[in-house]
């Protein structure tokens, strides 16, 4: 009858970087970071690869599921370990998921939402039984540690959801994604390619460049638009939604989303305090936190909502099983 979110998992690197330690790197202080973002600490992958984190999150989500039943792996990331093979292909090989089609998606911080949007359509069209949708990032490898406007924000980690065909459950009720042109280039990461003997390319900085105020403004507007769209498509009201799982970019953006949709902040999963912004991994990690909290009951309506570079935004509304 529908595509359900059957289980979730997450993985964080061992090393934690506290706000206090950042004030030794750049001109900042813990109180500013907490007041302006809600972040107290974040995890940084020192020993772990992105693949290690993705595999750990996937293993937790899969539990003792039959590996041969996984027929699709979509990995949302802007920081793959390698360009080729894709992270999806690496996860498939490492976990021995021999029946899976695997590839990556780049929709920046909206990547996990785009992954679910793709997966739902593919699973319905191709009668795919089970899929792994993973968000994984090592953002701290593309962070400029001399830029106080960005280096206090980001962290590393991975989250995973297993999607399943169900004959009796509704699962995903509606979904909506949208791209907006980044006309001012307010959120970019350059690629540093090797020079060839035939071209003399300018060196580029492969760091996150961000105009935080512009992204903030975009986020608040886009979140409102995509939240309204999924509610309308499903024919339900914001009050009918039990929990909201937003992208974890800034606690003030989450508060604005709650105000915009006239819902109490208690309905919103807030995980940013201990993880920072982990781009495509933020939503699946926060979803795993919500699912582990023991609060969710079968039939509860949950909305995932994200925004990010591209610019991109999207939301997914589903019923818990
Ligand atoms: O995942 C999607 C991508 N990212 C986002 O969604 C981020 C969206 N934007 C934001 O979260 C916020 O804009 C930031 C947290 C990045 C910045 O907060 P803000 O309230 O917009 O601060 P601001 O950039 O307007 O800066 C205010 C002041 C400035 O000083 P002056 O010019 O008023 O003297 C900044 O230089 O705060 C200063 N500042 C800092 N001070 C201490 C900026 N970064 C820091 C810092 N520590 N780390």
Provide key terms for this protein:
single chain; about 325 residues; alpha/beta; Peroxisomal Thiolase, Chain A, domain 1; 2 domains; four-stranded mixed β-sheet; 10 helices; 13 strands; globular; binds oxa(dethia)-CoA
Query: Which small compounds were modeled alongside the protein?
Result: oxa(dethia)-CoA
- According to CATH, the homologous superfamily of the largest domain is Thiolase/Chalcone synthase
Shape: globular
- Bin the strand percentage: 25-35%
Task: State the domain count.
Answer: 2
Number of helices: 10
Strand order of the largest sheet: 1-7-6-4-5
* CATH architectural group of the largest domain: 3-Layer(aba) Sandwich
Short synopsis of the structure:
By secondary structure, the protein is α/β, with parallel strands linked by helices. The chain has ten helices and 13 strands. A hairpin with a 3-residue loop joins strand 12 (301-308) and strand 13 (312-319).
Topology summary:
Layout: E1 2-11, E2 15-18, H1 19-22, H2 30-37, E3 41-44, H3 50-62, E4 70-76, H4 87-95, E5 101-105, H5 111-126, E6 130-138, H6 148-151, E7 156-166, E8 172-179, E9 187-189, E10 208-210, H7 212-234, E11 243-246, H8 251-260, H9 272-275, H10 282-292, E12 301-308, E13 312-319
Parallel strand pairs: 4-5, 4-6, 11-12
Antiparallel strand pairs: 1-7, 2-3, 6-7, 8-13, 9-10, 12-13
Helix pairs in contact: 3-4, 7-8
This protein binds oxa(dethia)-CoA.
Describe this structure in words.
- This protein is α/β, with parallel strands linked by helices and 321 residues long.
- The chain folds into two domains: 2-166, Peroxisomal Thiolase, Chain A, domain 1, CATH 3.40.47.10; 172-319, Peroxisomal Thiolase, Chain A, domain 1 (3-Layer(aba) Sandwich).
- It contains ten helices and 13 strands.
- It has helices spanning 19-22, 30-37, 50-62, 87-95, 111-126, 148-151, 212-234, 251-260, 272-275, 282-292, and strands at 2-11, 15-18, 41-44, 70-76, 101-105, 130-138, 156-166, 172-179, 187-189, 208-210, 243-246, 301-308, 312-319.
- The strands form four sheets. A five-stranded mixed β-sheet has the order 1-7-6-4-5, sandwiched between helices. Strands 8-13-12-11 form a four-stranded mixed β-sheet, with helices on both faces. A two-stranded antiparallel sheet has the order 2-3.
- Helix 7 runs parallel beside helix 8.
């Amino acid at each position: 009858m529908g595509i359900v979110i059957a289980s979730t998992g997450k993985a964080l690197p061992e090393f934690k970087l506290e706000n206090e330690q950042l004030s030794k790197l750049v001109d900042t202080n813990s109180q500013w970071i907490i007041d302006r973002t809600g972040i107290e600490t974040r995890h940084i992958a020192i020993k772990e690869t992105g693949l290690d984190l993705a595999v750990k999150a996937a293993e937790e989500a899969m539990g003792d599921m039959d590996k041969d039943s996984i027929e699709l792996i979509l990995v949302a990331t802007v920081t793959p370990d390698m360009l080729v093979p894709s992270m999806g292909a690496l996860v498939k090989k490492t976990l021995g998921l021999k029946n899976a089609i695997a590839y990556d998606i780049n929709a920046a911080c909206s990547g996990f939402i785009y992954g679910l949007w793709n997966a739902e359509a593919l699973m319905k069209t191709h009668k795919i039984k089970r899929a792994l949708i993973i968000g994984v990032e090592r953002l701290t490898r593309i962070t400029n540690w001399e830029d106080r406007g960005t280096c206090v924000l980001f962290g590393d980690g991975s989250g995973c959801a297993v999607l399943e065909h169900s004959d009796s459950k509704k699962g995903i009720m509606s979904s909506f994604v949208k791209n907006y042109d980044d006309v001012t280039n307010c959120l970019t990461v350059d690629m540093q390619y090797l020079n060839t003997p035939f071209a003399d390319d300018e060196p580029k900085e492969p760091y996150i460049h961000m105009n935080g105020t512009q992204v903030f403004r975009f986020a608040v507007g886009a979140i409102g638009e995509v939240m309204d769209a999924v509610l309308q498509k499903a024919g339900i009201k914001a009050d009918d939604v039990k929990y909201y799982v937003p992208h974890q970019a800034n606690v003030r953006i989450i508060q604005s989303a709650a105000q915009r949709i006239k819902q109490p902040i208690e309905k919103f999963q807030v995980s940013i305090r201990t993880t920072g912004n982990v781009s495509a991994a933020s939503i699946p990690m926060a979803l795993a936190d919500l699912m582990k909290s023991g609060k969710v009951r079968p039939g509860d309506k949950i909305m995932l909502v994200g925004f990010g570079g591209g610019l991109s935004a999207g939301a997914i509304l589903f019923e818990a099983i």
